[in-house]
Amino acid sequence: xxxxxxxxxTGAAGQIGxxxxxxxxxxxxxxxxxxxxxxxxxxxxxxxAAEGTAMELDDCAFPxxxxxxxxxxxxxxxxxxxxxxxxxxRPRTAGMERGDLLSANGGIFGPQGKAxxxxxxxxxxxxxxxxxxxxxxxxxxxxAPDVPAERFTAMTRLDHNRAVAQLAKKLGASVDDIKKLxxxxxxxxxxxxxxxxxxxxxKNAAEAVNDEKWLAEEFIPTVAKRGAAIIExxxxxxxxxxxxxxxxxxxxxxxxxxxxxxxxxxxxxxGSYGVPEGIISSFPVTTKDxxxxxxxxxxxxxxxxxxxxASVQELIDERDAVRSLGLI
Length: 328
Ligand code: NAX
Known about the structure:
The chain is an alpha/beta fold. Helix content is 43%, strand content 19%. The strands form 4 sheets. A 6-stranded parallel β-sheet has the order 3-2-1-4-5-6. It is globular and about 50 Å long. 47% of the residues are buried. Residues 156-320 form the Lactate/malate dehydrogenase C-terminal domain. NAD(+) binds at residues 11-17, 105, 112, 129-131.
């Protein structure tokens, strides 16, 4: 039997945590032949609820689940971690300034990055879900100088999946006919879902849609504002779909993208497509053997350029803000 993979989940007692842990424990994150050990990190007020979730995990008798540890100590939670899902974050509350939000999250993601640096396994892969996800990932990455920067990623897979679903609906296609869609930039309202390189059943998706007005006035805003629409409808933010996207992100990273397709991940820029080196921005990526590569050589139209630049500018502003706050 294989040695278990250590998976650390922060914010384990939250609503995404509740939707995520059972899927990890059942083998959907890493595959049906990979046993897992769960390390759950919570703040002290969240420990009791995390214990309740752990009781339910026990009660599922998942054959692949080889143990659960619960702690409020980041050094313990990341000890030997192979995969870390950083879900817990400080949400923006009424009246909170952006600087306060960034500072509060710097206080979480700085120490967690350091704990990952000092205690995680050599093959550590980090996915940041907690918002502002890209900049939280940057903060954590900057506190982990001994870990290769490309191991810190931010989640835009939910945006990617939302865009695939909206495009499939528009074209009356099935979701698995849609390939090569891209989310560029920040996981925020400025993100740019790009269908110009996407394919529907092998044909160019933008040509199949052939409706720039729909693209600009319906598709892009629907994808970008989907999180707010879910809150409006459900009275709570996306949880199961966010957990599903986290599973997809890590599963794709570990197992590879299919031939003829790619996915979207927030990754450290190497300067591709004019995105400044070092910021964590969403790109089209292919993955293989646990590594990703940014898809190169795509032609970027003026329509796309303006939108990519706007989202990237927001990331630059966030980076400059956390820099001036001394958080990185
Ligand atoms: P919840 O408020 O339900 O849960 C968050 C949990 O994190 C709480 O149990 C809290 O005690 C815990 N926590 C807070 N600080 C912590 C710390 N320092 N260490 C460990 N745990 C800590 O939020 P939930 O709905 O689960 O969402 C979690 C995060 O995901 C939020 O930041 C949210 O904005 C973000 N999202 C990101 C998405 C993405 O696509 N990247 C989409 C979904 C979601 O909105």
